[in-house]
Amino acid sequence: MTTRPRSPSVRARAALEAMAAKLEASGDYRVLRRITPREWFSTAAAKGDFQRRSEVRTGLILDVETTGLDPRTDAIIELGMIAFEYEPGGTVFRVTGSFSAFQDPGRPIPPEITRLTGITDEMVAGQSIEPIEVAGFAEPASVVIAHNAGFDRRFVERVWDIFRMKAWACSQSGIDWSGEGVEGTKLGYLLAQAGLFHDGHRAAEDCRALLEVLARPLPVSGVTALGSLLAGARQASMRIRAEGSPFDMKDALKARGYRWNDGSDGQPKAWWRDVAEADVEAELTFLRLEIYRRAELDIPVRRLTAFDRYSDRV
Question: Which of 218, 280, 284, 299 is the most buried (most CB within 10 A)?
């Protein structure tokens, strides 16, 4: 595993920044700057400019490293969390706390996971994450954010009940990155678009990196990424399952944005898609006329909110 270089002095940093600015001014270079952990993002609340302190809320960014991809058979080996204050419109004020801990999975960590994360068997040996500490850290949060919430939520809900009761948002799928002119959604790509980089694939570092992305304005709408994410998370969505759909219609369903569930999670084996409430009738009409070709067919629909979205319970 590589060792992070020592931070330069204030004078050396100023000289480096001048060099970077000169390169960027040429128009032929783009310079990426390493993320430096910071407490304050906006000082409006500190200066008393914010209207009512009661409107400042606590958010939680969460990331886990695991032994694999299946929460039923794989285990968490690291949990990272960053707590931060924000206002409902999406302005990030400051980081209020951080949490990072290892968990011994009780079996060897697969070599490919060690290569990806840098976490070894020796690092987690005998380590455990105390449920009371996790609950105490997460309890104040109004929303939990993960960059792949469909992955992280399924893991942490099985271990710590506090996360079953929280509203969740996914910064990877919950922001219209394409509509903002951003072609990729991986965290490293989003950081590069913002002129940043970090030492990735460790939970706490990924949390801080994501907060840097969320605090910045989006290139087209101009709202912060957090503001866009929260606005979408507040909206209910409808999950439609195309159960028993004809096999020869699978390509049409995939082209429409449906995903296949093989039933291994206890849910029905079917193609499914989440749509906005306003789009439900149009989607049901498409399925009845184009897929099943039965105008009166009853199709399963379930309403989802941030409190159950991305959960195994759905």
Answer: 218
